[in-house]
User: Fold these one by one.
Assistant:
Number 1:
Amino acid sequence: MSNEVFDLKKTVNLPKTDFAQKANLGQSEPARLKKWEEMGLYEKIAEVRKGREKFILHDGPPYANADIHIGTALNKILKDFVVKSRSMMGYDAPYVPGYDCHGLPIENYVERKLKEKGKNKDDIPTNTFRRICREHASTAMNNQTRDFKRLGILGEWETPYLTMSNEYEAETARLFGIYVERGFVYRGARPVYWDVYDQTALAEAEVEYADVVSPSVYVKFLLKSDPALIDEKLAGKNVKCVIWTTTPWTLPANLGISVNPRFDYSAIEVGDEVLLIATELVVSVAEKAGFDATKEIVRFKGEKLDKLEAQHPWLDRVSLIMLGDHVTLGDDSADDDGKKSGKTAGTGLVHTAPGHGTDDFYIGQRHGLPAYCPVNAKGVFTEEVEHFAGEFVFKANPKIVEFMRDNGSLLFHEDYTHRYPHGWRSHKPVIYRATPQWFIAMDNQGDKSLRAQALREVENVKWHPAWGEGRMANMIKGRPDWCVSRQRVWGVPIIAFHCTSCEHCVIDAKLIYHVADIFAAETADAWYNREASELLPDGYKCQECGNGEFTKETDILDVWFDSGSSSVAVLETRGDTLHFPADVYLEGGDQYRGWFNSSLMCGIAAHDRAPYKQIVTHGWVVDGEGKKQSKSLGNVTSPHEIIDRSGAEIMRLWAAAVDYTEDVRCSDEILSRVTDAYRKFRNTARYMLGNLDGFDPAAQSVAEAEMLEIDRWALASLNEVTKTVLDGYKNFDFQASYSALYHFCTVTLSARYLDILKDRLYIYAPTSLERRSAQTGLYKLTDSLCRLLAPMLAFTSDEAWENLPGQQVASVHLAEFPAVSEADNSELLARWERIYGIRDEVLKALEAARGEKVIGSSLEAKVILSVDKDTTMFLLDYYPQLRYIFIVSQVEVHEADSLGIKIEKADGEKCERCWNYSVRVGEFEKYPTVCERCIEALSELEKAAAA
RNA sequence: GCAUCAAUAGAUCAAAUUGGUAGAGCAAACGGUCGAUAACCGUUAGGCUUCAGGCUCAAAUCCUGAUUGAUGCACCA
């Protein structure tokens, strides 16, 4: 045995690890991403999980137009939680990201850019324009990919699906062919904004509002139906419906009058006429028109007017009265600046021209009225319009007013200033005009109709949250036929041909498949590069007239059709990687109307079933006060800023910590709390790693039966959290997983277990059972913690994983979640809950003693516990360890009637090595400043040094 | 305007399927420690559960209405 005297400080086993306290995420994250890329982590995971059951999250494609915002980041992070957690559950969980590349916002962007260079869209060939759109989408997509990768999201980033790729465009076209084949597609008319100067359809976004003066006219329509149907008192009277409009030129297209079923209407006798006007508006109309409105014959609900017929004021045509909730009382709308117009106008009976208004169109559609539009592309009345054929509509306005004044149908006319839509290029007033459009019918094919099937499928999908089912069902019930045509160029063309001779429109699934094959080779640009004859099979002839010459349809498909077809265009075109249907779609709540809806239709068209088994939706990111983030309010949080300042890991943890099913707040305070939590996770892991320095789990672990009870308690607690955490992942309730882990780290580990363990780890000889038992526990805890945190803290858990001794697996993301033991530990857990209850009381007493300056450090204390008999018996088993559990130097337990805790100054002297107080300090010759426990440890150390 | 969802300490979340007197850690304040140190431990103080009604012995929880917020749809003829 050596006579050398140890430097006591050096015999204490202090923690040591390369896992730094400071995360330095700004640098460490990119370094780790690089490492993952170099080792091919995503591919390795796929390899390891090969042959396992699949779990497919199908990515809803973000729009490839701009940089990502915080909402996009939240969406992708949540998806990554799903993919990583399912993979760690043992599933083969691939992630193929996608991008939505076609559509109007990109067209608009490109047009704007062209304009800046003094060029016009119409001056360049369509395919040049499409090429620029394609380039723009590519650029945006590349930027987004860079940002998504930076967030630590693993997936097939080198081969994402693009709705503008040749394969995808071909699949989109083919799917349209399937709709055609199944008889869902029809050609109809629908009103759209129409610029009569540019002679083009305009999208909502291309319309600007400006004040104009319009003729405001009140017009009388003779009730043709028997007035007695409304009320006996009206029998035989000359009853007239009064309507109001500011667009007299739409009157030739009037096919109906809409009333609100819930409003009151009055029948007012004026001279030899009885006028029908909404009760609430009678006074204002009478004032304007200057008649005496005191003679109300009867008052009745609008529903009484249902399906009665009126006579057009000058045409030999019936105008159908229809019930609609869109009918409002007067003009109570607010202007853009938020001020009420204060004007009263209207009669509660609304002139309805289905060819000239969206509302008119939908109500007309429900009542079987056509979208009648006797106005041509130049805004000129067609031949069929009596009296006004060949007139430009805005010029016809005063003439129509005069005409009605002459024939007595005009009740009143005035000038009226209001906001009216204008073309953003022409800056001239636009009109609403029905034009030929392509529709997908919701209700034909009977039992196999899209609506009927969709409603059935909705019940087979599992919705998170559960109210999603009702919301989706409502959407499907209420949605009109799907208008899939757009008068644009950046998209997938609708494959139809028009015979140049008889104008017959050819829409044929076989032709569509033929052209789709060409798209597959050349992209949809082929539609614009080739002549119709080069797209049709050789010698194709019109079936109506035998003519062989055709022109191409110019409309393209709605972008929702593009993305909606992803279930077939992606899930079924990636070999063994993916399959239809997907297990889950996870998107923002706006997608009930959008992608969930269009995908459902497409899934049904292709396979008669929903393309997803589960739907998870998340809310929107709002500011710290719950307000919507917007550029004008300046409350926008940029993901780049968060990443640069705090790291992607903080954003991931934020996504995990909040309740994403509702609107999610994001503010500096919230992020600062999340950062605190991050530090807690990190420091907890670091401390455990530090105490595992040099530990060889394979050789030095202690069998569970031989472990100290508190170490077994820690493992039993771990098992409980593991259950909770795995349940959370399984149910997409990441917050539950996060909370459980956070509570485990702060309370179970940091405040209790690790604090108590400190003495044992530092003081006992490295090879002692006491220390090895603790390390065995710590090893299992750290290993499990890394795995359980991995989906959320993708970077940090992997970093900790690398620092775990004896590591065989190259990344935590290749590992699986720890198994849950079914062993019943409830008694063990309950015993320790009781101990911690007593400990909490002791800690309070210690704090009081500290306040009175009896002690500073708790090791300066002796605790004298008075407890009841039962507790005395209970504590008997723990008597020797109580001082370590309480982190004091001495504990006495006395039986008493009630609980009492007395704190005294500990007996003896402070041991220089372990800082505990002991009366035996000074007894030992070689180390006179040390206690009996340290002497033992030191002799062990001496033995080891000699060997 | 219509539909859906929500509202609990400063912030983030709990409070069971079936109503039973609201909890946690964090932050704050104060203290300890100086062997996890840009760490660690403790103590204390924070809530008319958005508001107003109702059912009930009993309501954060159920019902009605309002307010606020978010999203979707529609609308300004």
Number 2:
Amino acid sequence: MGRAPCCDKANVKRGPWSPEEDAILKHFVEKHGTGGNWIALPHKAGLRRCGKSCRLRWLNYLRPDIKHGGFSEEEDSIICSLYSSIGSRWSIIAAQLPGRTDNDIKNYWNTKLKKKLLGKDIKDDQQTRRLLAKEAAAGMRFNSSNNIVSETMSPSNNTASPSVSLTELGQQHKNSPYNALEASNVPVLLQNPSSSASSESSLSITPTINVRNTDHYEKDFSQMLEYSSLTSILMRALESNKSSNCSTHMNPSQLTPCLINNPHESHDVAALYAQRGSFNIKAETFDQNDTQLAYSIPYWETCHSYQSDNNMWMNEVDNAADTDFSYSLPGNHHMNELLFYSNTNNSMQIKDEPTTSEAYWVPQLAAASASDPKSSAYSYILPTEGNSNTAPQGIFQEGVIY
DNA sequence: AACCCCTTCAACCGCATTCAC
DNA sequence: GGTGAATGCGGTTGAAGGGGT
């Protein structure tokens, strides 16, 4: 047997709420709470409304922490960044903006923000997101230390207090194309071992997420060994927010698991750091002696991604004349898995079909020191192809805060 | 004043998921 | 495990209001 019937739809009032109805609902909820049952609430409160309507009215308008009025520049920025990354998932975006409702943000986006940012030549959602990604990529700048300054995310002071955890995100959307946010993956990587014993990592944009969970990396590392013949990989994401002690501006919700693959049996490199939407990437290759190899890509590239007509995620490099860099997403992969290949002449290109579909979470972390960015970069050495005597060796320092 | 067009945003709708039985 | 109500979400609608002619 199921539950009792919801409500008598023939006898409920519809349309705009009167001030009297608002007062009744507000008074009732503040005094008694929802009781975990919105369907029964209108009857108890003496309202001729559907429970669903009551819930909507309370959540979107009456509850006390609702922020009415115009959106700030910072809120605009967060909305744009998240929209370019995850699309129209308003509830998640709203979770980043305390006091704002998903309905609010959705309306604001559709009526104002989209036009304000992108002009009136918008044909469809896909174009919108692509343009936004370009905007975001254009917002990436280098400071004098050659570190990234993300102007578009710019949550350095973290005024947003997210109310949704990554675990919740993963659970809510485990079947979405973005299911790399699954709880089983994300919190482990982003967990701060030095913090409380909470099993969940808050979706916050704070430096505290940047602590390595070595157990996970060891496991990750061993998996990687099975598939890669890379000689050495260095991953780093440099950012300049030294004032907050090595914080990254990146929002964890935008992190992308990356597939590292080397189908060419050469010393190709796939060194990467990615977030959906726009991202900056620097690829460098080192041998076991930590000597930088000649075919490293010694400069930053600003890339941005977009969804192609056949729903494939593609990327573009802003300065394609310098580097032919690209990634593809095979059809049997999640959309947010990335493949990075390179040949050995300092250009990167898509080669053969991948030989593995394993995905790896990539350290999302930033270097602590602008003067010596390598000092806190994450790196590990992989055995050279054909040299089975070379013991796999991960190199990382326990407890290092990036 | 009347009409039209556009913008805004609260509310609704349909669907997918969760949950109680 | 099956069923159906409850809940949550995103897309859409339509009333209200403002501005222009």
Number 3:
Amino acid sequence: MRVATWNVNSLRVRLPQVLEWLTLASPDVLGLQETKLTDGEFPIEALAAAGYQAVFAGQKTYNGVALLARELPEDPVTELVGFEDPQRRVMAGTVGGVRIWNLYVPNGQSVDSDKYTYKLGWLAALRETLAAELEKHERVIVMGDFNIAPDDRDVHDPAAWAGKVLCSEPERSALTSLLDLGLEDLFRRFDQAEDTFSWWDYRAGGFRRNHGLRIDLILGTAAMADTCTTCVVDRAPRAWERPSDHAPVMAEFEGGA
DNA sequence: ATGGTGGTCCAACCA
């Protein structure tokens, strides 16, 4: 089974790229973030024609998440436990017996922002949600745009980013507390090229200069990690015409689909 | 150089 995550920064604009990438990479599951579509605008038919069913949680202008698979994901969930939120950032479902949480973690804007406080509260609610989930399921994937670079290897210029949003200690601690529940960053199970990132700012030639961060992650429980054979960032779509500012990340697992 | 680009939607917010 191949499982992937991609922040597309508007599915309306990026649908051609998504369809192209589905053909090229042939994932069994794809989590999308920042679809920026209401549910009524979701391109169900175009994705069905490409062989994918979807569950989705959208809103106008901002956020929006979707989970695509070859068969409709079961037992969908769009909320964190005890965290009422009009922002659509969570789309969980079960595919092939694997419980999959696709997330668009709040960006936080800056460490002195109200949005940063919201981000840390959201992550605390996520921890509670996943703690309960991991009690119930052995095979769990938690993936998406985490808006956190796990450590300095995931940052093009650690000195410049030190203490800043996406790299601050409270954010990294919140991520560590998720991992402590029994999850592993699957990317780091494998040898990786230095300076492998998943997001590059549109501004100042970020991609051309490889000034990026690795903030798009696929976490897995031990049962998933044990069967994981690869986890890679596919930089290619970031170089296409009219790209998202994020590249897709994909992990492959033995057995199943 | 404390900027820049891009999406949404047309002023201003978000990333």
